[in-house]
């Protein structure tokens, strides 16, 4: 009888790739997890129960066929595992690194619910695709035939890149416009290297270029090129700008020097630490935490990135103020644990009331909170505790309160582009179609600030519908 390769969760315990010691990793921007070795990846993949209703798959925004590629990995059929993985995910090695698996696939694993510890899906996904790159299995787009249609994509983040890949593989002529000097969007300049090393992103950009995708960098739509000009040059346009406008703080002293936006801080760090760029604001100390008492305000994944970056820059102390408790924070629990290991202090149930300092911030005026009745989201709403205020010394305060859409109608001189009351672009669910003929929108500019994996899903779905719309137009023209 053949040996059963799966369902080994009752004999083999859950194991993660080795994590570098906090005392070592907190001094550099290298990824903190090592790669699985072949035997370890096969062992951990073999823990999958191959359940009849795979909740890991249904709770993945891309509906990745996780049980099948786990089984293929467990049985040593790694190239087939990669083919299955990339069939539904344009960037599996990126999702394997930065997806909050504890809230998605792994958090809904059946054996996790039964007390055996989840399958380490994300680490196996990363291993599969990193091996595929090493073995040369990852190929640029090579369309069977070229199409005449042209698509312009505004934004080189995960949503725009996913759409570009799908369209180019179908033979469409694709041009991607982006305001930055490199592709990747927040993958490149927002997420620190210790979570996503930048060569991982850059090789994907090169793969797209090698496959025929044209990139136009340092292009600010509305300044260097108008929205109408882009529409005139292409048969369809996909808006994939993401959301970059930082939510602000109010209160006395909120405009003091030393209070900075998370996106500015992270971009400066990524440029200097990962690319060796010269950033004047970093060199001057304005966006550098070295030797400073740092306070980060917020409890999401961006806040975790800022906290852990400040540790690596050599801050004197790093504290996080968050108005709810640990159980109600939006950020990944795994990231919070990593931050604590590296020396970050969390001040739960606290919120800023204002800031002290004449011209430069010297302290945050903090008010203590408690959790009251649930709000519209179902989470307990924070309530002020009277008379419990205190001051937290700070030389650098980083605002990580989330992102909102920029005012595209104004920036692009496009009042005809319909937006919602939140400023996001009005677009049809799944297809991404807007009210403007031939104009689509995907990712955070439609959803609001969300996950990379959702942007990839939106980009892939939109590309599929763009191709269908092209085919319909071609059929009508042929009649």
Automatic annotation (TrEMBL):
Keywords: 4Fe-4S, Iron, Iron-sulfur, Metal-binding, Oxidoreductase. Pfam families: Fer4_20, Pyr_redox_2. Residues 151-459 form the FAD/NAD(P)-binding domain. It comes from the Bacteria. GO terms for molecular function: 4 iron, 4 sulfur cluster binding; metal ion binding; oxidoreductase activity. Gene3D superfamilies: Alpha-helical ferredoxin (1.10.1060.10), FAD/NAD(P)-binding domain (3.50.50.60). The keyword Oxidoreductase applies. Residues 26-136 form the Dihydroprymidine dehydrogenase domain. The keyword Zinc-finger does not apply. This is Glutamate synthase (NADPH) small subunit. The lineage of its organism: Bacteria, Pseudomonadati, Pseudomonadota, Alphaproteobacteria, Rhodobacterales.
């Amino acid at each position: 009888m053949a040996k059963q390769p799966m369902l080994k969760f009752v004999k083999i315990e859950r194991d993660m790739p080795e994590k570098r010691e906090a005392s070592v990793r907190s001094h550099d921007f290298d990824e903190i997890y090592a790669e699985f070795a072949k035997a370890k990846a096969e062992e951990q993949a073999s823990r999958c129960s191959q359940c009849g209703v795979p909740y890991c798959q249904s709770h993945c925004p891309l509906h990745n066929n996780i049980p099948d590629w786990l089984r293929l990995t467990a049985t040593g059929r790694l190239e087939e595992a990669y083919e299955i993985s990339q069939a539904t995910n344009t960037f599996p090695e990126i999702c394997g690194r930065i997806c909050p698996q504890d809230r998605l696939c792994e958090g809904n694993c059946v054996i996790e619910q039964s007390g055996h510890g989840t399958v380490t899906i994300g680490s196996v996904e990363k291993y599969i695709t990193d091996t595929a790159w090493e073995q040369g299995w990852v190929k640029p787009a090579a369309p069977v035939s070229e199409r005449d249609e042209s698509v312009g994509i505004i934004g080189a983040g995960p949503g725009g890149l996913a759409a570009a890949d799908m369209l180019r593989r179908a033979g469409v002529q694709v041009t991607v416009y982006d305001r930055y000097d490199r592709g990747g969007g927040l993958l490149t300049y927002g997420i620190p290297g210790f979570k996503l090393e930048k060569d991982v992103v850059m090789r994907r950009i090169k793969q797209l270029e090698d496959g025929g995708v044209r990139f136009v960098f340092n292009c600010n739509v509305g300044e260097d090129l108008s929205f109408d000009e882009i529409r005139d040059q292409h048969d369809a346009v996909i808006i994939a700008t993401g959301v970059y406008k930082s939510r602000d703080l109010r209160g006395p002293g909120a405009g003091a020097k030393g209070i900075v936006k998370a996106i500015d801080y992270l971009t400066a760090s990524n440029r200097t630490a990962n690319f060796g760029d010269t950033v004047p604001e970093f060199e001057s100390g304005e966006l550098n935490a070295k030797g400073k008492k740092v306070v980060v305000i917020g409890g999401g994944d961006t806040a975790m990135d800022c906290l852990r970056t400040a540790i690596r820059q050599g801050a004197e102390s790093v504290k996080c103020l968050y108005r709810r408790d640990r159980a109600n924070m939006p950020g990944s629990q795994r990231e919070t644990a990593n931050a604590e290991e590296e020396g970050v202090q969390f001040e739960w149930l606290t919120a800023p009331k204002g800031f002290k300092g004449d011209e430069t911030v010297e302290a945050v005026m903090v008010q203590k909170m408690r959790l009251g009745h649930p709000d519209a989201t179902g989470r307990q709403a924070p309530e002020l505790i009277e008379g419990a205020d205190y001051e937290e010394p700070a030389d650098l305060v980083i605002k990580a309160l989330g992102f909102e859409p920029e005012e595209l109608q104004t920036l692009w001189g496009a009042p005809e582009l319909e937006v919602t009351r939140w400023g996001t672009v009005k677009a049809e669910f799944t297809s991404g179609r807007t009210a403007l003929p031939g104009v689509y929108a995907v990712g955070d500019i439609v959803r609001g600030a969300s996950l990379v994996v959702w942007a990839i899903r939106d980009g892939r779905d939109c590309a599929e519908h763009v191709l269908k719309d092209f085919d319909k137009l071609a059929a009508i023209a042929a009649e």
